[in-house]
Structure formats: structure tokens, C-alpha cells
Amino acid sequence: MSGVIVDRSGERQIANFRGQFPADADWLPLDELAGTSVVLADPRWPEGAVALFGKARSLGIPTVLDGDVADASVFEQLLPLTDHAVFSEPALAGFAGSASDEALAKISRFNCRVAAVTRGQAGVSWYEDGDLKSRIAYSVDVVDTTARATSFTAPTRSRSAAALASPIRCHLHRRAALKCTRPGGRAGIPTIDDCIAFMRINE
Prior knowledge:
The chain has 203 residues and is an alpha/beta fold. The protein has one domain (2-15, 34-202): Ribokinase (UDP-N-acetylmuramoyl-L-alanine:D-glutamate ligase), CATH 3.40.1190. Helices cover 29% and strands 19% of the residues. Strands 3-4-5-6-7-8 form a six-stranded mixed β-sheet. A two-stranded antiparallel ribbon has the order 1-2. Helix 6 packs across helix 7 (192-202).
């Protein structure tokens, strides 16, 4: 359960109660993953995320980790099963000792295809195929930053698994910026068509 407070500048604060997750994940309907293009998890329920990612790996389904703040031991479990790891700066700093590009490079030991860190107004940095890449953030009139990170990491139905080879090329940085111009959390998340239209106007 979360309470989300949005101030006049569009920035949000979240107070949440995570509840008690079951230690056992054997009730998850993992057999229903067949035919899925991509799966997403965060580290809040490690047992469930490990079960999901393990099954996805066995089926050849790409995995995306929304790297929120968690104990290092949780990331040690999840990153070996992760294709695309996207950290917040606080999460990367907590796990790797800092949120620098050098700290991000250390994630390569887990053999993720892409390791990224979102930097808010400073944009995003990521390692792909051993190369450091970055994008600056778009300048937009911010209304509500709720779901900004979700807009960046969450898979969309219109995104193919092949396109995940580079999440940055798949309009996700545009999607996060465009989300900030819209009120609400889930209701304000743009579609991929919205992002393409945004790109045509802004690039």
C-alpha cells in the first residue's frame, strides 16, 4: 500500500507499507509464461522474482529488473538471471558503493546484456556490449513524476523481445519524459505511439 504525494513542481514522495510476502513462490502460475515476450520484476519479493526469472530463462524469455533499493544479497540472487538491469541511483549506490559509471561497469560481472542507471534530470547511463553509453534527459514541463521510473522500465505490449536488445533505443527515455507531463500514475503512462509522436516533435 502506498501513499503518493505530488508537490506543485510535479515531484512526488511515496510512503509505503510493503506488507508480508510469502517465502514460498510455488503458487505462481509460471506455466502461463509460454508465449510471453518479456517479464519484469523488482526486488521487493526476492523469492517470487527469482522463480519468475528462472522460469523465463528456461523458456528463453528476456528478463528486466527494476533495480529499486534492496539488500545486496537480493541483487546477488537476481542479477545472474537478469538480461536488462535498470537501477535507480540510490539502488546502484547501495549495491555497488556509488552511482558512478565506474560502479555501473561492475555489474558486468553478472553478464547482463544491458546494465543501466537512471539519473533523473541528468538522463541515463548504460553499458551495452561492453560500451558505456548515455542520453541526456528531455526538457519538459513537469506535472507529475509518479510512474516515471515505471515508464522507463516496464515492458509494453507493442515492444518485441528483439527490440529489447537496447532498451534506450526503444523510446523508453522518451516515454519517461512524456509521462512527467501527464497527471496520475498508471493512467498517465504513454503508449509507444505517443512516444513516437513525441520524438517527431522534439527531435
